[in-house]
Amino acid sequence: MSDAVRKLIERLAPDPVCDDCIADRLALPDRQEAGIAASELAATSQFERRRDACVLCGNTKPTTRRLP
Ligand SMILES: [Zn+2]
Q1: Which of 3, 9, 13, 48 has the fewest CB atoms within 10 Å around its CB?
Q2: 18 C-alpha vs ligand 1 centroid, how far in Å?
């Protein structure tokens, strides 16, 4: 699961993507799961989590991105 989330974020790097779009793109039944997986990634030095404009939906929300 978190592997799929990581791949999606890496594909969009270095642009940030929100939890809703992650859940949407991966057809996850639970949006919270996307947030949990994204938070786990953000605990590593390669990913960052912050409020930003999502590259897919354009809304300013908590997003995750792969650092360049
Ligand atoms: Zn979005």
Answers
A1: 3
A2: 4
CA–centroid distance, 24 to ligand 1, in Å, is 9
Residue 50 backbone phi and psi in degrees, to 5? -165, 165
| pLDDT tens figures, 8-65 | 999 999 999 999 999 999 999 888 999 999 999 999 999 999 999 999 999 999 999 9
How far, in Å, is the centroid of ligand 1 from the Cα of 57? 4
Distance from Cα 45 to the centre of ligand 1, integer Å: 22
Sequence-distant (≥ 6) Cβ neighbours of residue 59 within 8 angstroms = 18, 53
